[in-house]
């Protein structure tokens, strides 16, 4: 169910990260090597990236497969960025949300993607959703499980939580409400990448002090790639990469529902 990638580092053309690698996200749309659920990611794609001096990212999203968009490769060849989040989509359920359902979702400086599926959707998250502000329920990004998960993450970010706290609490809350869900989440603000491995593959490639990539699967065969264990929280920046087992989170990352105040 989807493949995604986030990058922070020196300015690079989008195409060098998404299109050109031998097993990049572009190729993963029809020939992923490590995908556990689904085989073709042709239900939409998107890229969000950051321009120098502007903390709010731009996005390019489409409802069809990435290989069918003849303009994207040209755009990706010339647009350079120091940070991006990109995804190709295999829809959990067929729907009419078109490009609105394609990651990355965005709000302010944040970009977000969900690789996976919520079991029992939508009934399984009815109770969890009641804690969201009414305006979030009335104006979802799309009518999908991923959009609702994004709304839960965003409510926590707006409430003052950092990216790691917001992802960890959301994963644990959704997993409790919908056991068996696959919740590989990916979040960036252009400086830090935060991700969870929960039910599908996740890898990272780091050059400490220079760049970091977190992705559903490696885009090449460089030996620097490392696989992230399942049930793990990842926080990556240009400086370093930190992995924390979700079952061993410290008190500062204790699971909390949206209705509970921060201690």
UniProtKB/TrEMBL annotation:
Q: Does the keyword Hydrolase apply?
A: yes
User: Superkingdom of the source?
Assistant: Bacteria
Extent of the signal sequence: none
Specify one Pfam family. GATase_4
A biological process from GO: ergothioneine biosynthetic process
Which pathway features in its UniProt record? Amino-acid biosynthesis; ergothioneine biosynthesis
Record domain Glutamine amidotransferase type-2: where: 2-263
MF-aspect GO terms: hydrolase activity, acting on carbon-nitrogen (but not peptide) bonds, in linear amides
Q: What is its EC number?
A: 3.5.1.118
Catalytic activity, per the record? gamma-L-glutamyl-hercynylcysteine S-oxide + H2O = S-(hercyn-2-yl)-L-cysteine S-oxide + L-glutamate
- Do you know which InterPro entries this protein is assigned to? EgtC, EgtC-like, EgtC_Actinobacteria, Gamma-glu_amide_hydrolase, GATase_2_dom, Ntn_hydrolases_N
Provide the alphabetized UniProt keywords: Glutamine amidotransferase, Hydrolase
Matching entries from PANTHER family are given as:
GAMMA-GLUTAMYL-HERCYNYLCYSTEINE SULFOXIDE HYDROLASE, GLUTAMINE AMIDOTRANSFERASE DUG3-RELATED
Tell me, in a sentence or two, what this protein's role is: Catalyzes the hydrolysis of the gamma-glutamyl amide bond of hercynyl-gamma-L-glutamyl-L-cysteine sulfoxide to produce hercynylcysteine sulfoxide, a step in the biosynthesis pathway of ergothioneine.
Protein name as annotated: Gamma-glutamyl-hercynylcysteine sulfoxide hydrolase
Originating species: Streptomyces mexicanus
Gene this protein is translated from: egtC
């Amino acid at each position: 169910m989807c493949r995604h990638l986030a990058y922070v580092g020196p300015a690079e053309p989008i195409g060098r990260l998404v299109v050109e690698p031998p097993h990049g996200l572009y190729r993963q749309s029809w020939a992923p090597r490590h995908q556990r659920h689904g085989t073709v990611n042709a239900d939409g794609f998107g890229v969000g990236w950051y321009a120098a001096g502007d903390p709010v990212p731009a996005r390019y999203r489409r409802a069809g497969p990435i290989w069918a968009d003849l303009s994207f490769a040209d755009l990706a060849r010339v647009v350079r960025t120091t940070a991006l989040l990109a995804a190709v989509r295999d829809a959990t359920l067929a729907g009419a949300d078109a490009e609105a359902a394609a990651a990355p979702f965005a709000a302010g400086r944040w970009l977000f993607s969900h690789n996976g599926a919520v079991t029992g959707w939508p009934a399984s998250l009815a109770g969890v959703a009641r804690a969201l502000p009414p305006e979030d329920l009335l104006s979802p990004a799309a009518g999908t499980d991923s959009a609702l998960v994004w709304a839960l993450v965003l409510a926590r970010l707006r409430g003052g939580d950092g990216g790691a706290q917001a992802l960890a609490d959301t994963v644990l809350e959704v997993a409790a409400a919908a056991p068996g869900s696959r919740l590989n989440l990916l979040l960036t603000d252009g400086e830090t990448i935060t991700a969870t491995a929960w039910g599908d593959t996740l890898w990272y490639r780091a050059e400490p002090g220079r760049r970091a990539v977190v992705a559903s699967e490696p885009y090449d065969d460089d030996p620097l790639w490392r696989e992230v264990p399942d049930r793990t929280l990842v926080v990556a920046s240009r400086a370093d990469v930190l992995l924390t087992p979700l079952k061993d989170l410290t008190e500062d990352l204790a699971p909390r529902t949206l209705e509970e105040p921060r201690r």
